[in-house]
Amino acid sequence: MTFVGKILVIVIMAFALLFLGISTVVFTTHTNWKEATAAQKKKADELQQKSNNLTAEVENAKKDLEKAQADHQAETQKAGTRIVQLEQEIQRFTGEINDLRSKVEVAQQSAQTALSEADAYRKETERQREQRAAVEEQANKFKLQQIDLTDRIRELERMNKTLDENTKDLRDRVARYSTLLRRNGLPDDISAVKGQESPPLVQGEVSRVAPKNDLIEITIGSDDGILPGHELYLYRLKPRPEYLGKVRIISVDPDQAVATVIGKTVQGKKIQEGDIVSTTTRPRT
Questions:
Q1: At residue 182, does pLDDT exceed 70?
Q2: 20 to 30 Å CA-CA from 212: which of 101, 152, 193, 202?
Q3: What mean pLDDT comes out for the span 229-238?
């Protein structure tokens, strides 16, 4: 083989290697583009599917939006109707509140008037109670006075009865004494009999006092020598000795007598049961 042949062989081998490399590169490149195309197609399919899904979702979203808009419009209408109703109710409530305010004002005025009337009634009731208490107190006083007057009337009636009986008895006794004196040739005038113009030395006590402090009953009588017209001293020993005045005998019994106060007692003092009557101003020993 010649040198040229060798060179050609080398050149051919070089071209063969170059062709082999290019073929390998072409084959490799062809395989990568196929896989890439498949991958891109797959991605395109996936994107299409997503697009379809998104389109469906968009349609659904549009339907939902339309439904939401319809619902919103319906709710808006309902809300508008409700607002109108609420405004009407507010107006009604406002009217009722105004009516209630008017009624409350009227009620307050009525309550104020009622309070004023109640206060006036209370004052009138208190005044009537005071008047009633005063009337009851006066009535009680009148009842006490009536009881006192009744007692005094009974006492005076009893004393009057006693006086009538004593007077009758005295008249009988005077008649008998006058007859007896005349039989014995003596005058029947008691004041003319010696020793009878003044009472004997006697001392007794007050047993009863008339309500007016003007009549008294004493524990000595005709058996003690007391006669009508005799005057006795009246005094008190306890709690301290004090002179009260004088009394005059108006009727007598054997063991008691009735006397009337001459004028008034000293300083108008009330006579008490147990006070002393005596022919002297000193107690007897």
A1: no
A2: 202
A3: 93
